[in-house]
Design a protein that fits this description.
about 25% strand; six-stranded mixed β-sheet; binds zinc ion; CNF1/YfiH-like putative cysteine hydrolases; alpha/beta; three-stranded mixed β-sheet; 4 helices; single chain
Length: about 180
């Protein structure tokens, strides 16, 4: 993962402009932290990040676990979560939506959810992407996008922790509220 970091940062600069990248420690928990200013160290104990600051880039590393984006339709706030089997069981998507609605005062139906590539049945026995969508729906979000892409089925495009038995890189998922 450390070897991929310069590569990730370069790619990010090309794709999103030179914004400050903020990452989370990622402990397979359900803590979602609010980040509104640049910082160097990953946010300790967190698996999800919320921001209302334009121009700041949130980053989450994944390789089978799902990256989950929750974004206000007007582009004023967003969350990026790391949600694998454990984090999903602990309800990290529910927690991300709770924090966003409290912090912005907007109802849940003003947000949309995107579930990124992750490992899915039959490559994995637990359908956590389905549970992520359920948590979003139960919280009141109506726009939920999931293209159903499985990381383990697509070796040409994605790292898969399980397929490679742990000896793999990570993808960097990012979210930037456009200034
Ligand atoms: Zn698969």
């Amino acid at each position: 993962m450390a070897r991929l970091e310069p590569f990730h940062r370069n790619l990010l600069r090309t794709a999103a402009g030179d914004h400050h990248l903020v990452t989370a420690e990622q402990v397979h928990g359900s803590v979602v932290a609010i980040v509104n200013s640049p910082r160097e160290e990953p946010v300790s104990g967190a698996d999800g990040l919320v921001t209302m600051t334009r121009g700041l880039t949130l980053g989450i590393y994944v390789a089978d676990c799902a990256p989950v984006w929750i974004v206000a339709r007007d582009g004023s706030a967003g969350a990026l979560l790391h949600s694998g089997k454990k984090g999903t069981e602990l309800g990290i998507t529910r927690e991300g939506i709770r924090i966003l609605t409290v912090e912005t005062g907007k109802p849940a139906d003003e947000f949309e959810v995107v579930i990124g590539p992750c490992i899915r049945p039959p490559c994995y026995e637990v359908d956590f992407s389905k549970e992520i969508a359920r948590q979003a729906r139960d919280a009141g979000i109506r726009q939920i996008h999931d293209e159903g892409v499985c990381t383990a089925c697509n070796p040409e495009h994605y790292y898969s922790y399980r397929r490679e038995k742990g000896l793999t890189g990570r993808m960097l998922a990012t979210l930037t509220l456009i200034p």
